[in-house]
Design brief:
With 324 residues, the chain is α/β, with parallel strands linked by helices. 26% of the residues lie in helices and 29% in strands. It has 10 helices and 16 strands. It has helices at residues 51-55, 58-62, 130-133, 137-150, 167-178, 189-198, 212-219, 233-241, 276-286, 304-310; strands at 8-14, 24-29, 37-47, 71-72, 76-84, 96-100, 113-117, 121-123, 158-162, 182-187, 203-206, 224-229, 243-252, 266-270, 295-300, 318-322. The strands form 3 sheets. Strands 3, 5, 6, 7, 8, 15 and 16 form a 7-stranded mixed beta sheet that branches. Helix 4 (137-150) crosses helix 5 (167-178). The relative contact order is 0.16. The structure holds NADP nicotinamide-adenine-dinucleotide phosphate.
């Protein structure tokens, strides 16, 4: 069934790059579906810590892309398939899906509807609500790519996860446990420590206060096999110092201030890079038992500016916009 070509939707968009004041609630046409896309009726949109960078034009500059204004913000979310492009296989109208819309000239998830390339969308794992899946796509793919593709984490290995109570980190802790690794989680705040203990990490410390190097040496006396760094600075430096000879560390691009210098260990950066195979693996791991995707706070679509301001505060997991 095709959507009405004159149909409009509520959205939060910008007419030019800039500060939070550029974000406006608008009525915009529902985007049209190409052959390889699905139209999604959005239930929940993730509010990523990188969304302000998108709003300021940082990604457009970095990737040398022209923006189509008004530009609807938001790079991930979840909802229900409303319409399917002619070449799309494996998704149908009515399916619950989550997905990534990064730098899509047709706009992102801060809207009642969005179109997503079918390769960047997947069915929501059975046990997750559509709401929770709204904050899963970018952080879930980033967590899995970090553990699996960048670090090539193996069963029985020890891994330190820095920023374990954050968006990528809390998912990475659970995925690493599913991959049968031993996890030393470095969380933020006492609430973060309690939260990550509940997620099944083998040992949890507080990363602003506790001695990371000491805790890591107790956890893995011969040195850690791996570290996933979702934050930089001194804590990341200590995590790298705690690696064994031949150990490896990975951080998603966007993490600032990661020191590269240490002989005998590999420190690499990487990107989320979604594709159907990665989504399938993510879903399989999530479906392997209870899994928590944590939304700290929800905002209405019209409160998107407030949600982006809240990115500056301390919270666990992720922030989200809900359409109703
Ligand atoms: N390149 C890509 O494809 C890609 C994709 C996704 C994410 N990223 C990047 O990856 C990074 C993480 O993303 P995210 O969504 O997970 O962000 P996030 O939710 O802000 O996670 C970072 C976490 O690290 C915590 N933290 C900072 N210093 C700490 C310390 N010393 N000890 C313990 N915890 C500490 C923060 O908590 P407090 O703020 O409370 O300290 C926060 O919870 C961001 O830089 C993002 O831009 C890149």
């Amino acid at each position: 069934m095709k959507n009405n070509p004159n149909q409009t939707m509520r959205a939060v968009a910008i007419d030019e790059f800039g500060g939070i004041e550029k974000m406006k609630s608008r009525k915009l046409p529902v985007p049209k579906v190409a052959n390889d896309e699905v139209l999604v009726r959005v239930d929940t949109a993730g509010v990523g810590v990188w969304d302000p960078f998108e709003r300021e034009g940082g990604f457009a500059k970095e990737f040398g892309m022209q923006a189509n204004f008004p530009l609807v913000l938001g790079s991930d979310g979840a909802g229900t398939v409303e319409e399917v492009g002619d070449e799309v296989q494996g998704l149908k109208r009515g399916d619950r899906v989550y997905g990534i819309n990064f730098m899509n000239p047709k706009g992102g998830f801060y809207a009642e509807y969005t179109v997503v390339n079918a390769n960047n969308a997947a069915m929501i794992p059975q046990a997750l609500s559509t709401r929770d899946a709204g904050v899963l796509a970018v952080d879930g793919v980033t967590a899995l790519n970090g553990l699996d593709k960048a670090l090539k984490l193996k069963a029985g290995e020890s891994i330190l996860i820095l920023g374990a109570s954050g968006g990528v980190g809390h998912l990475a802790v659970q995925l690493a446990k599913r991959m049968k690794a031993r996890v030393l989680a470095v969380a933020s705040g006492q609430d973060g420590v309690e939260f990550v203990k509940r997620l099944g990490a083998d040992k949890v410390i507080e990363g602003h206060r506790d001695d990371i190097l000491k805790a890591a040496r107790e956890f893995a006396p011969k040195g850690l096999d791996a570290a996933l760094l979702t934050a930089g600075g001194k804590a990341a430096e200590q995590a790298i110092a705690a690696l064994r000879e031949g150990g490896r560390a990975a951080y998603p691009n966007g993490v600032e201030d990661v020191s590269q210098a240490r002989n005998g260990v590999k420190v690499m950066s990487y990107n989320a890079e979604p594709n159907p195979k990665t989504f399938a693996k993510l879903n399989e791991l999530i479906d392997g038992g209870p899994f928590e995707v944590h939304i700290a706070r929800t905002f209405k679509l019209e409160e998107a500016a407030e949600a982006q301001r809240a990115l500056e505060s301390h919270y666990l997991g992720k922030l989200a916009l809900v359409m109703s």
